[in-house]
From TrEMBL:
PANTHER family: THIOREDOXIN REDUCTASE 1-RELATED-RELATED. Keywords: Flavoprotein, Oxidoreductase. One of its GO terms (molecular function) is oxidoreductase activity. It comes from the Bacteria. InterPro entries: Bdr (IPR023856), FAD/NAD-bd_sf (IPR036188), Ferredoxin-NADP_redctase_2 (IPR050097). This is YpdA family putative bacillithiol disulfide reductase.
Length: 320
C-alpha cells in the first residue's frame, strides 16, 4: 500500500489550503471528504452573505473576485470548487473517515470505502455537521429543523426560531418576509452583539413594531406536534401554536472522532491539545487546522484567521 506524505481529512477552505501548500512543496497528499468540495458551505443558507470581504476568504494567494462588498454562498462555492478543478487537487469525495490509528510512525486510516497509510494526518473537519442539541422533549419531531436553507417552505406557517445569532436572525427575517408568523425564543436579554451590523437594526425594528414576536430571557422546554411550550422571562409557562421549529442553536465538531484519534480534549469547551506554533496535537505528526481547533468555541477560528495553519503545518512537516 502506498504511504502518503499527508492525508487531509476535510475538503473545506482550510483543507484545500493545506493541500495546495503540500502540492507546492512536492509532498504526496490526498484529501478525504465525506461530502462535496467545501461541503459545509454547500449546506449554508442559500442566500447567506459572509461577514468577511472577498480578500479575507482567499487561499493560496488566488484572487477571489466578487462584485458585492461581501460575497455570498454561491460565489464562495464557485471560488473554492473552481480552485479544486483548476489546481487538480487530489480529493476523494463522498468517503467518510471512520478511524485514524498509528502504528509506530505510520498512520492507518480506515474510511467507508478503503484504507490508507500516511506519515502525517491533518484533521480539518470544521464543525457544521453535528447540531448542538437542546435535549428537550419533542426535539426529534419532524417539524424541528436544525439546518435552515431557504424561507419558501415556511410561507404562511407558524414558525418558532430559537436563538439570536446570525443564523437565527436571518431565518426569522427571511421567513417573516415570505409570510410566516414568526416568534423568536431567546435565552439572552437582547439580540446578539455579533449579528451582522447591517442586519441587526432590521431585526430590532421588526421586533419593536411587533411584526416579529420575541420572548427574551426565555427558554423552550418542550415541543409538541401542534404547539411549543416555553418559560418566559417571568418564569411563567406559555404554550403557543406552532408548525415548525427552527432550532438555530449552533453546531459542534465531532469530538468522538477527535478522542478516538487519540487527541486530548481539555476543559468544559473540550479544547483539543495542540502546539500553537506548529498545529501538531499531542499525537506526533497528527495536526489540526481551521475551526476544529476551537473545541466548543466555534467562533474563535474562521477562514480569514486560520489560513495560516496550512503553512505552519507544512513547514513543521518539512523540518522533521
Amino acid at each position: 500500500m502506498e504511504i502518503l506524505d499527508i492525508l487531509i481529512i476535510g475538503a473545506g477552505p482550510i483543507g484545500l489550503n493545506c493541500a495546495l501548500e503540500a502540492k507546492k512543496n512536492n509532498l504526496n497528499y490526498l484529501i478525504i471528504e465525506k461530502g462535496t468540495i467545501v461541503n459545509s458551505l454547500y449546506n449554508y443558507p442559500l442566500y447567506m452573505k459572509f461577514f468577511s470581504t472577498a480578500d479575507k476568504l482567499e487561499i493560496a494567494e488566488i484572487p477571489f473576485i466578487s462584485a458585492a462588498p461581501k460575497p455570498g454562498r454561491q460565489e464562495a462555492l464557485e471560488y473554492y470548487q473552481g480552485i479544486a478543478r483548476q489546481k487538480n487537487i487530489n480529493i476523494n469525495l463522498y468517503e467518510k473517515v471512520l478511524k485514524v490509528s498509528k502504528d509506530e510512525k505510520i498512520f492507518e486510516i480506515e474510511t467507508s470505502k478503503s484504507k490508507y497509510t500516511a506519515k502525517n494526518v491533518i484533521i480539518s473537519t470544521g464543525f457544521y455537521d453535528i447540531p448542538n442539541l437542546m435535549n428537550i422533549p419533542g426535539e426529534n419531531l419532524e417539524k424541528v429543523k436544525h439546518y435552515y436553507t431557504e424561507p419558501y417552505p415556511y410561507a404562511r406557517q407558524k414558525i418558532v426560531v430559537i436563538g439570536s445569532s446570525n443564523s437565527s436572525v436571518d431565518a426569522a427575517l427571511e421567513t417573516y418576509r415570505k409570510g410566516a408568523e414568526v416568534t423568536m425564543i431567546i435565552r439572552n436579554s437582547e439580540i446578539s452583539e455579533n449579528v451582522k451590523y447591517w442586519v441587526k437594526p432590521d431585526i430590532e425594528n421588526r421586533i419593536a413594531e411587533g411584526s416579529i414576536k420575541a420572548h427574551f430571557n426565555a427558554e423552550l422546554i418542550e415541543i409538541k406536534e401542534k404547539t411549543v411550550v416555553f418559560k418566559d422571562k417571568e418564569g411563567e409557562i406559555q404554550e403557543i401554536e406552532n408548525d415548525f421549529v427552527l432550532a438555530m442553536t449552533g453546531y459542534l465538531p465531532d469530538f468522538d472522532f477527535l478522542k478516538n484519534s487519540g487527541i486530548d480534549l481539555q476543559g468544559e469547551c473540550l479544547n483539543p491539545v495542540y502546539n500553537q506554533e506548529t498545529m501538531e496535537t499531542n499525537i506526533e505528526n497528527l495536526y489540526l487546522a481551521g475551526v476544529v481547533c476551537g473545541g466548543k468555541d466555534t467562533h474563535l477560528w474562521f477562514i480569514e484567521n486560520s489560513r495560516i495553519h496550512a503553512e505552519m503545518i507544512i513547514r513543521n512537516i518539512l523540518s522533521t
